[in-house]
Amino acid sequence: MYIILPSVGITAIYFLRKYMFRNRKNKGIKEIYTTLETRKDHLPFFKIPSHYINGFLTVVCGGSTGVEVSTVVSTATVGNQVYKWKFMPLAFKRELICAAVAAGVTVLFGSAIGGWLFAVEVIAKKMQKTVLLSCTIAALVAFLFIQYFDHGFLIAMPAQQWHWGALPFMVVLGGLGGLLATYFTQVVIHCKHWFGNIKSNFVRVNLGAITVGTLILFFPALYGDSYHGLTTMLESFSSSQTIAVLPFTLALLVLLKPLAASLTLGAGGDGGVFAPSIVAGAFLGILFAYLCNQYMGTEFLIINFALIGAAATLSAAIHGPLTSIFLISSVAPNGMQLMLPLAIGALIAYVLAKKLCRYNVYSYQGA
């Protein structure tokens, strides 16, 4: 079933795109940037059901990505549709789209500040008063909305008190998170390019899906968004006795989660780098803390370094350090007390990834 389910899900998505959505493809957050650059290009209404259905099928059937990007684009489409229906003056297209995104991310992570920052820092990229006001109202309304539902934490294990002596290690982990995010970005680019050159839809869909399914067969933690796998690893490495093979398995998961996500997207699955970055970064933080404790005599708390690794990798992947700090601080109980370590990891990863990205662009142009 691990091998078959991804093929079932991605094949269903292929036929939905071909017959229900008329061969119109989803391109992720890039679509939002395109529509914000001009008032003529819009996010068509079909993207609301398309992203919801395809994102659901991808994750439920084992595709190694998450529903965050699908939610962001579909909620942005809601804002764009309100703009098209002329319910407000046509000058406020950016405000409506960003407000919808702020609400969607707030509900996903239970963090009004995180949703607000994502809309302003990552989507709008402008500090206009009207954008700030619209995002503030939307995030507050969404936050009040989720208070009526049983909203738990993404990670049940609470963050714990940290010590100043760990700061140098947090700096190193931030740099590793930046490298991991850069690796992830490059793998996604190469996988999409490679799959794009495969002419046969049958071969493209099944080659990617079966490869992902095979990886899941040997590493079940890669299934879907992998938050369940992250919980298992946190519990395993926080116990007094850790099975000898687990560190090696975790090291493989750090590298394989970005690969599995890239293969899922290349084969036609719906999603993005949001959840995979969080999970792969958390795996990296767990492994880093374990190795330091094992071979350097430290007593680092596994959960703290998992959150720092997640914040660092997510920051570098989405180029949103402030967003990453507040989103990750909201995924576990007592996460707010790690604000400074999260900020250190996120900012270092962001700066490093930006420099590496610029270097890659220059190298490509030189070649």
UniProtKB/TrEMBL annotation:
It is a multi-pass membrane protein. Gene3D superfamilies: Clc chloride channel. It comes from the Bacteria. Its main location: membrane. The chain crosses the membrane at residues 96-119, 131-150, 162-185, 205-223, 273-293, 305-329, 335-353. It is found in: Membrane. Keywords: Chloride, Chloride channel, Ion channel, Ion transport, Membrane, Transmembrane, Transmembrane helix, Transport. The keyword Membrane applies. The keyword Transmembrane helix applies. This is Chloride channel protein. It comes from Sphingobacterium suaedae. The lineage of its organism: Bacteria, Pseudomonadati, Bacteroidota, Sphingobacteriia, Sphingobacteriales.
